[in-house]
């Protein structure tokens, strides 16, 4: 694991929140139902992600730390076609390259788990370990060997906010998974994992906000839009949140955001922002896969149609709520 690995790592691992995001995605890919995230000093000191997913055997665990050792065989073009979030086998080796990492993992069918310690991408020990089924990844001293990267790290306050944001987006993308986040030993957020987006929103933003959200559900020929739309009245207090999830993946898209703002424009007091959590499910062929995998941006081949569907779905429920 030389310099090129550490440079490549910068693409995936920009800050503590990128580590959290990648580890969570792996847990989700491993069919976890509970994911626990704990950070110290906004993740700059330690990051731990524990799941109850499939786990790995010893050989796969060692392989997972090597570059391009994905078990999710797929090409980059398949980014949105495949069901899994990861696809290139780059996250774990990239994280390992710039930290001190302890990977513990056990498959349900095995009696014992495997513990692998790595420093700066080099495996320093492999041992058997007793543990519950699942995977437990501990990342310490992020960027200890890349001082240049450290310079880009903002305040712990900013980094902590990014960590919360990453967990929040993942929890809203996957209401069927129970998440907990703690920071410096204190609980920050917990979602029930009962499959209800409304319950995840209530857990993350409070019941007051959740109670002022109404369900959106619209099925088109090749597009399903579902989620929650905040009533305009909630926006008198607090800030807005507009979030989109495409085929289970948190995304950003200016045309969709514009569509939401347009729908709310005539309904909200000036300078207020809407609260909207929308899942879009569509044929992966209609999603432009030409986006950076670590970034959130997404494009659609029929962007106007998708934005139009979002506008109609939202407009309809808001009109109904007012009537
Ligand atoms: P990718 O997700 O693109 O396949 P990663 O570097 O993120 O690449 O992970 C490498 C491999 O390690 C995965 O393909 C998967 O087989 C395994 N893996 C990583 N995290 C977990 C986990 N939490 N549970 C089970 N397997 C995991
Ligand atoms: Mg991955």
From TrEMBL:
Transmembrane region(s): none
Tree of life domain: Bacteria
Domain DNA mismatch repair protein S5: 201-319
Protein family membership: Belongs to the DNA mismatch repair MutL/HexB family.
Function: This protein is involved in the repair of mismatches in DNA. It is required for dam-dependent methyl-directed DNA mismatch repair. May act as a 'molecular matchmaker', a protein that promotes the formation of a stable complex between two or more DNA-binding proteins in an ATP-dependent manner without itself being part of a final effector complex.
Name of this chain's protein: DNA mismatch repair protein MutL
Biological source species: Kyrpidia spormannii
């Amino acid at each position: 694991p030389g310099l090129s690995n550490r440079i490549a790592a910068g693409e995936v691992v920009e800050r503590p929140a990128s580590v959290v995001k990648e580890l969570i995605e792996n847990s989700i890919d491993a069919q976890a139902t509970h994911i626990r995230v704990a950070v110290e000093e906004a993740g700059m000191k330690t990051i731990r992600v524990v799941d109850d997913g499939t786990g790995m055997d010893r050989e796969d665990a060692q392989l997972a730390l090597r570059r391009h050792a994905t078990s999710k065989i797929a090409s980059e073009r398949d980014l949105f076609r495949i069901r899994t979030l990861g696809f290139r086998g780059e996250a774990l080796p990239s994280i390992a390259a710039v930290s001190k990492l302890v990977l513990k993992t056990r498959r349900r069918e095995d009696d014992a788990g495997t513990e692998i310690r790595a420093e700066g991408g080099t495996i320093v020990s492999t041992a058997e370990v007793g543990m519950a089924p699942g995977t437990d990844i501990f990342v310490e001293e992020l960027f200890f060997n890349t001082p240049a990267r450290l310079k880009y790290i903002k305040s712990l306050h900013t980094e902590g906010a990014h960590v919360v944001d990453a967990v929040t987006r993942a929890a809203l993308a996957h209401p069927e998974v129970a998440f907990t986040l703690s920071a410096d030993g204190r609980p920050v957020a917990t979602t029930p994992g009962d499959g209800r987006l409304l319950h995840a929103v209530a857990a993350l933003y409070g019941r007051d906000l959740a109670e002022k959200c109404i369900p959106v559900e619209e099925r088109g020929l090749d597009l399903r839009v579902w989620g929650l739309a905040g009533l305009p009245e909630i926006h008198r207090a607090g800030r807005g949140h507009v979030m989109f999830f495409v085929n289970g993946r948190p995304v950003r898209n200016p045309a969709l955001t514009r569509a939401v703002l347009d729908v709310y424009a005539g309904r909200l007091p000036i300078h207020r922002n809407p609260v909207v959590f929308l899942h879009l499910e569509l044929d992966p062929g209609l999603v432009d896969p030409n986006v950076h995998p670590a970034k959130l941006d997404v494009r659609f081949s029929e962007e106007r149609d998708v934005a139009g569907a979002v506008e109609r779905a939202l407009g309809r429920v808001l009109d109904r709520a007012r009537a």
